[in-house]
Amino acid sequence: MLFVDDGDILTAAGSAAALDLGLHVVRRDHGAEVANSVSRRLVFAAHRDGGQRQFVERPMPDLLDESLAPVLAWAQERLDAPLTVSDLAARAAVSPATLHRRFRAQLGTTPLMWLTGERLALACRLIERGESRCEIVARRSGLGTATSLPSLMRRETGITPSAYRHRFGPEVS
């Protein structure tokens, strides 16, 4: 839900949602035709359903344990390679169980979930930069094949690569 209209009290979930709320007020007070005209003038959707997921970059925490930071950097340089949790643990010179504990403590996730998240972020960046071929995005991000990429992206982000390209690709203005 992007905004709430409870009669005398109206509230929005954020700055973009405030625009949605503003259009809602215009629509309520002046009708759909005026609201649609305002939305076109603002180059803003007349109505958004609020079901879209948020695409927020996840910066790396500033206070990483030095023993884990090099492993993260090493893995980020090799996202296209077939990396396993055992590979990450070997690079950190710890057992997989210790690596899991460190990931949970420092990043709040598991090594595999972190790796998948980094690969998805890379896939999204590739799409944003204009790569339209799923097989290239899948291979360069380490996410498998062109046939597995759409279902993985849909499961993790809520949208397919083509929908992501439509929303965030270089031709979007």
Structural summary, described in words:
With 173 residues, this protein is mostly helical. It has helices at residues 15-30, 32-42, 69-76, 85-92, 96-107, 111-128, 134-141, 149-157, 161-168; strands at residues 3-6, 9-12. A hairpin with a 2-residue loop joins strand 1 and strand 2.
Secondary structure: helix percent = 55-70%
Report the β-strand fraction as a percent range. Answer: under 5%
| Strand segment tally | 2
Mean pLDDT: 84
- CATH architecture classification name of the largest domain: Orthogonal Bundle
User: What series of H and E elements makes up the topology?
Assistant: EEHHHHHHHHH
Outline the biggest β-sheet: 2 strands, antiparallel
CATH topology of the largest domain: Arc Repressor Mutant, subunit A
Task: Tell me the name of the CATH homologous superfamily of the largest domain.
Answer: Homeodomain-like
Shape: elongated
